[in-house]
Amino acid sequence: MTHSPATGTGPEFTPDVLRDHLDSHLHPAARAWLRQALDEATANSGSGWELRVAEAGRRCGSRHADAARVLILYAAHADPATLARLYHQGSAAERRAVLCALPHLVPGPDAIPLVEDALRTNDTRLLAAALGPYAARHLDAHSWRHAVLKCLFTGVPVDAVAGLAARGRGDAELARMLADYAAERTAADRPVPADLYRVLDLAAEDFEADHPHGKES
After folding, report:
1. What total number of domains does the chain contain?
2. Residue 161 lies in a domain
3. CB 3.0–4.6 Å: which of 101, 129, 131, 196 could bond 96 by disulfide?
């Protein structure tokens, strides 16, 4: 998943940025529908606004549906329980929107079970959404390392992993896992993903200079 206002991903894409993007790109009928949906979400009286999350693809088109859904969730100030319900009841596209909204709606680790659920799938767009800024802040080291490895398994570009440089640099355990995976691929006469060497170089930084005779477990 590319980080852009159209997808609603990336920490720089605040609600104001998303609103400006949709105002500029949606046709008039879709803009009118979105304004009504946002008003309903802001009022947050009952669950009627939740139906708008499901309708966004039909009303705004697949290109802009992710951003529209994220914006509706922001307007509703959806809490972790609501986000979990929408995630588990929703389509893959609706699940992506929930994951993309987490950094702005859930300050603590309460929504990590949703990230973990997404990481168990093989849906590459869902995986990319799961590894946004929220996971960078709250996913534990063991799960985060395995998520990076799963990106390599499934072909998700590691650019989708928010905070990769900060979390991966000097991570000796991640370096070991990557080296083992590369060795397995090579022994099986299978290609090694180019992204693997990029992350391996990052993970080996600092540690090799400071610990030339061993690796942390």
Report:
1. 1
2. no
3. 129
